Amino acid sequence: MIYNPRMPNENPNQTPYYVTTPIYYVNDRPHIGHCYTTLIADVAARAQRLVGRDVFFLTGTDEHAEKVSKTASENGKTPMEWATINAERFKDAFAFMNFSNDDFVRTTEERHKAKAIEYITQLKDQGIITLGDYEGWYDPSQEEYLTEMVAKENDYKSPVTGKELEKRVEQNWFFDLPRYEPWLKEQIESGAIRVMPEARKNEVLGRLKQGLRPVPVSRQIKEGDADWGIKMPGDDSHRIYVWIEALCNYLTTVDNDERAQYWDGEVVHLMAKDILWFHAIIWPAMLHALGKKPPQTVYAHAYWISEGTKMSKSLGNFIEIDLLQAYAEKYSLDAMRWFLTTQGPLGANDSDFAHSRFVEVYNADLANSIGNSTSRVGNMVHKYFAGQIKGTCNGEFGFENGTSLQTARQALANAGKPVDDPDRTYKIAEFADQAMAAASDALDSMDLEVMLDSGRSIVRHVDDFISYAAPFTLAKQLDALEDGEHALSSILYSCAEALRIASLLLSPAMPEKMAQLWRNWNCNHLVDPDDCNSGFVAPLVELAKWNGKHGLKPGQSIIKGEALFMRADSKEPAPEAERIS
Ligand code: ME8
What we know:
Blueprint: E1 17-25, H1 32-50, E2 55-62, H2 66-74, H3 79-96, E3 103-106, H4 110-125, E4 129-139, E5 144-146, H5 148-153, E6 166-175, H6 181-190, E7 194-196, H7 198-209, E8 215-216, E9 218-220, E10 231-232, E11 235-240, H8 242-247, H9 249-252, H10 260-264, E12 266-272, H11 276-289, E13 297-301, E14 304-306, H12 321-331, H13 333-343, E15 351-353, H14 355-385, E16 396-397, H15 404-414, E17 426-427, H16 428-444, H17 448-469, H18 471-475, H19 484-506, H20 511-520, H21 540-543
Parallel strand pairs: 1-2, 1-12, 2-3, 7-13, 12-13, 14-15
Antiparallel strand pairs: 4-5, 4-6, 6-8, 9-11, 10-11, 16-17
Helix pairs in contact: 2-3, 12-13, 13-14, 14-17, 14-19, 15-19, 16-17, 16-19, 17-19, 19-20
The chain binds ligand ME8.
């Protein structure tokens, strides 16, 4: 599953792009939340590769938590056996989702452990980690201490799970977080560390104002504890606190000669709002103390809920990978990826996974949009030009006499059909160019929905143009109209070329379906269409040039092929998960 295509002509002016997901706990199997964060990382990674950047995309598993050893013993396994069973489940789920991660780190791997020990040792040697007593409100379900203020606000219950907090006193090693308070404030306020979306940035700055406390970085080993976790360097009576060790994964994985450029590049950490504080405050401070640069972007999305209800273990309503598989089976994997990416909780609000909404989005965005448009254009090229692109066109349609659009209007008039808005003009090539620019801006701000919508906007424009120019009416009068064939081929070229550009913009979310289109349309020059994960031959600006080197060419054959998406019936029952044990 490890995937690492490299552009043959990487743009040296662009910094490498390093995107990460949280590393997930292996006490249980993967669910929609894990798949979602990793999916948006995948879409961002694929889009960045498409624009020509050198990308490294990391995900993995967090294995040294107490809850892992606890569930392992409940299941009659050693912690390592249990961690391996679940790490494999995560790997399988992510392969199923067609994620293009370049690596998958497990924190039980030597390469991670050795480096994590090195960082903690360095911080101890620098006197930034010291021994002290600590009393505080401990959330056992999250394995973290909360400030008095946060504990009180939540009625001394876990803000994540609602379980009772425990007052604990411990002797611990502490990271001196307060000394970085002014630096953190300045970095976040100035946007040097972009905490996104804006609501989360305000939340973090608000909490920062309440002051910082030293962070425990170890746990005392008690009698009966499982032998699980990394020992504190130089102190065998403690283990490194799982959170501190886990955060290190982002650096341990690329802290070597072959990958150092990724940490020097643009680093983007993705996660949900539950673990923002660790990523926006504790981790950047640790990095600063280690003499490393902080991440550029810390992006915390909101939560998926299920049919209007929060998902939880006790309610047993988690949408697990097997339900996602059932949706993929019925509607295609890419339809499911599309739904999650465009309807997911990327912003500050939670999103509901509801079957009725899935069908609505599937029909509107896929079956009736890119699916229908590509079949229509493919069918017309097939029918009117024996399946071959006839001639090119610059994608501009004015209303002067003798132009293709004028001929199309004449055909409508001859057929006795009304011509609405006779002064209408179309600049399809320019429209596609602007959509591409909008997609790049949206990608920079991680607005993946807007990025993908710029692809859809081209499809909508093509649909509108087809309705207006009515090439099917024109096609019936080729003998009667002097310029009929030229007009028809110009119109169809423009539709097909615009859809080719749209398909590039839609491909980060739907790599398989767009590769299917490229196979049907013989676009072998974009990418290897038999392998939707192969690298593109050139950056997007080159690939998407209208009638450019990579554009559709006269004589290129277009196969009608199977429709990309069949319309779905909203009355059909929702797919059901086949429960896997
Ligand atoms: O917190 N909606 O691991 P974890 C959307 N090991 N995303 C969700 C979600 C939901 N309902 N539920 C979970 C840990 N997620 C630590 C992280 S990182 C150094 C250590 C996703 O298995 C989301 O990305 O509890 C969230 O941040 C993550 O799963 C928590 O995964």
